[in-house]
Specification:
Length: 522
C-alpha cells in the first residue's frame, strides 16, 4: 500500500510525506481493510483536501491525523445534509479578502509581497504594479505550447521571446517581444518591458489578432528593428491559459480566495445537480423608479411558483442618479433599500432559501472612485439585511464560489471606456463584445487601462485579476446584453434592467449555460 500512497500523494499531488505520516495512512488502510480501488479514492480525497487547505507541500503526521478525522466525518454526513445548510456551498469573497499573492519570477512561486495590504499603500506597491502584471503574463506565455519546445522535436517550430535590451546593434533582424503599450511621448507608441522601451511603428501592421489594444495592455509584437524603431508586422494579445493548466502549474496555491471546501469536486457536482435552479443576474436596478419595483414584484412572483433560484445577484447602480452625500439622497437611498427588503419578504420561500448578493455601481455610496469599490455602507442596508436569511453586500468587483464553480462579478462601463482609449482600432464588422471578453481574459485583468484613466488601489491590483480563468465572468455594462464563451469561461452582460426592457440573465451551473429573459412592460 505504501507504493499506492506514494503514487497519489507524491506523483499526482506533488506532496512529500514524512515517515510517520506514511505509517499513519498505511495503518488506517489496513485497519479498515480497504480495497485498492477504495483506498485510492480515499487517498485522493485526503490529498485533494490537503491541497485546498494550502497546508504546504510537506505532509506531517499531526495535521494529517486531524484531516483524516475531519474528512471521514464530512464524507459520512455529506449525504444527510442539505445543500443550503453547508456554508462551503455558496461563498461570497470581497475584493479586499482575495489572497495578496504576487508571482516571483526568480523562485517561480507566489509570495506575499506585503505584510498587510492597505488602501493607502507604499510607493513600492505602485512601482511593482505593472511589473507584477508583466511577470504573471510572461510565465503564462512561456508555458504555452508555442513557446515550450519538447525534447527531440523540431525547435524551429517554436518561438523565442526577446527582451528590448537585446535589440541594440541588431538592425534588420526579426524579433518577437512581450511588453506593455505606452505613450512615453506625445503621438508616439512605445513598447515597455523590464529591460527598457522601444518606439513602435504600427502603420504597416499586416496581421492583428482579435482584441482591443489600449495603453497599459500587454501584447506580443513581431517585427524588425530599423533606425532604432521596431517596425511591427504582427501584433496580438498574449495567448490565454486554460484553467486546468494553471491549476496543474500551481496545485497548492489558492489564487481565487475563500476557504477550501472539505468536500470533493464529485460531491460538489452532486449538489449542483440536485439544486440546479439557476442564478438570476440583474444590473442597473434603479430602486428609486416605481416601474423597477413593479417589475421586481413580477419577477419574484414568477419564481415563487417554482423552486427558488440558487441566488439573486443584484448589481448597481441602485439609483438612477449619482448619490450625493449630505443631501436628501441619504434618507431616500436607505428607504429604497428598505422597500426592496419588504418586497422580497412577501415571498417567504425566496427570502428564506435564495442567496442575495449586492454589488455596488459607480452611483452607489461610498468610495473614492478607485477600484475595488467598497460595499454599500451598513447604514443603508441593515433594514434589508434583517429581512433576508442569506444576504451579502460586497465589493466591486467580487468573487463567488458556488460548489465547484468560480464566478467573478464586475460592474463597469468597460466597453465604452476601453474603446475610447484604443491605440489600435479593432477590425470592422467584428463582434465588439467578443473582442472585449477576449481582451479581459487574455490580459488576465478586469481593467487593463492606465491608472490615469481608471485608478486601481496599488496594493489591491491582485483583486482585479482574472487568473486562473473563472467558470463564469459577469461584466455588467451599459451595453447590449450578451453571452460569450471563451476558454471554457461563460461570460455574460445582463444589460440594463431599469432603463431597458427589464432584462436579466438566468445562469444554470450544471449545463454552464445562460438564458436571456425580460419582463413584459405592463
Amino acid at each position: 500500500m505504501q507504493s499506492l500512497i506514494y503514487k497519489v500523494f507524491t506523483r499526482k499531488y506533488s506532496l512529500s510525506l514524512q515517515a510517520d505520516a506514511l505509517e499513519l495512512l498505511s495503518t488506517v488502510i489496513a485497519q479498515n481493510e480497504l480495497s485498492t480501488v477504495d483506498a485510492t479514492k480515499w487517498l485522493e480525497l485526503l490529498a485533494d483536501t490537503w491541497t485546498k487547505r494550502e497546508a504546504g507541500p510537506l505532509v506531517e503526521a499531526g495535521p494529517l491525523k486531524d484531516l483524516v478525522a475531519a474528512v471521514s466525518a464530512g464524507t459520512s454526513s455529506v449525504s444527510s445534509r442539505g445543500a443550503d445548510s453547508a456554508s462551503d456551498v455558496f461563498t461570497v469573497i470581497s475584493a479586499f479578502d482575495v489572497p495578496p499573492l504576487w508571482y516571483d519570477p526568480s523562485t517561480k512561486t507566489f509570495t506575499h509581497p506585503f505584510t498587510k495590504a492597505e488602501i493607502l499603500s507604499s510607493a513600492e506597491a505602485k512601482a511593482s504594479l505593472f511589473r507584477q502584471r508583466y511577470d504573471l503574463i510572461k510565465q503564462r506565455v512561456l508555458r504555452n505550447e508555442n513557446f515550450t519546445p519538447v525534447m527531440f522535436s523540431d525547435h524551429n517550430r517554436f518561438r523565442t521571446l526577446s527582451t528590448i535590451d537585446s535589440l541594440q546593434g541588431r538592425e534588420g533582424e526579426r524579433f518577437l517581444l512581450l511588453g506593455m503599450l505606452a505613450q512615453l511621448e506625445e503621438g508616439k507608441l512605445f513598447l515597455e518591458d523590464r529591460a527598457g522601451s522601444i518606439e513602435l511603428d504600427v502603420t504597416n501592421v499586416g496581421k492583428r489578432a482579435h482584441g482591443l489594444f489600449t495603453e497599459s495592455s500587454f501584447v506580443l509584437v513581431d517585427g524588425c528593428v530599423e533606425d532604432g524603431v521596431l517596425r511591427v508586422d504582427e501584433i496580438g494579445l498574449p495567448p490565454p491559459e486554460s484553467r486546468d493548466v494553471t491549476r496543474n502549474a500551481f496545485p497548492n496555491v489558492n489564487l481565487f480566495g475563500g476557504s477550501p471546501s472539505l468536500r470533493t469536486e464529485v460531491q460538489l457536482r452532486e449538489i449542483e445537480v440536485a439544486t440546479d435552479n439557476g442564478m438570476v443576474i440583474l444590473s442597473d436596478v434603479w430602486l428609486d423608479q416605481p416601474s423597477t419595483m413593479r417589475a421586481l414584484r413580477v419577477l419574484f412572483d414568477g419564481f415563487s411558483h417554482s423552486a427558488p433560484p440558487i441566488a439573486f445577484i443584484f448589481i448597481g447602480d441602485f439609483s438612477s442618479r449619482p448619490f450625493v452625500a449630505g443631501s436628501g439622497d441619504t434618507t431616500q437611498y436607505r428607504d429604497n433599500m428598505t422597500a426592496l427588503g419588504q418586497l422580497i419578504s412577501e415571498f417567504p420561500d425566496i427570502s428564506r432559501s435564495s442567496h442575495f448578493v449586492f454589488v455596488p455601481g459607480a452611483n452607489d455610496p461610498w468610495g473614492s472612485g478607485a477600484l475595488p469599490k467598497p460595499r454599500i455602507a451598513e447604514y443603508f442596508t441593515k433594514r434589508l439585511e434583517s429581512r433576508l436569511s442569506h444576504v451579502t453586500f460586497t465589493t466591486n468587483p467580487c468573487r463567488i464560489k458556488y460548489c465547484a464553480h468560480e464566478i467573478v462579478v464586475f460592474r463597469e462601463d468597460l466597453l465604452k471606456r476601453i474603446r475610447r482609449n484604443c491605440v489600435l482600432e479593432p477590425e470592422e464588422g467584428t463582434d465588439v463584445a467578443k473582442h472585449l471578453v477576449r481582451t479581459i481574459i487574455d490580459q488576465g485583468h478586469l481593467c487593463p487601462l492606465p491608472q490615469r484613466i481608471r485608478p486601481v488601489y496599488w496594493a489591491y491590483d491582485h483583486a482585479m485579476r482574472v487568473y486562473p480563468v473563472p467558470d463564469v465572468l459577469v461584466l455588467a455594462d451599459r451595453f447590449d446584453a450578451y453571452s460569450v464563451n471563451y476558454e471554457k469561461c461563460h461570460c455574460v452582460n445582463p444589460g440594463e434592467f431599469s432603463s431597458g426592457e427589464f432584462s436579466f440573465f438566468m445562469y444554470y451551473p450544471v449545463s454552464r449555460t445562460s438564458q436571456y429573459s425580460k419582463i413584459p412592460k405592463s
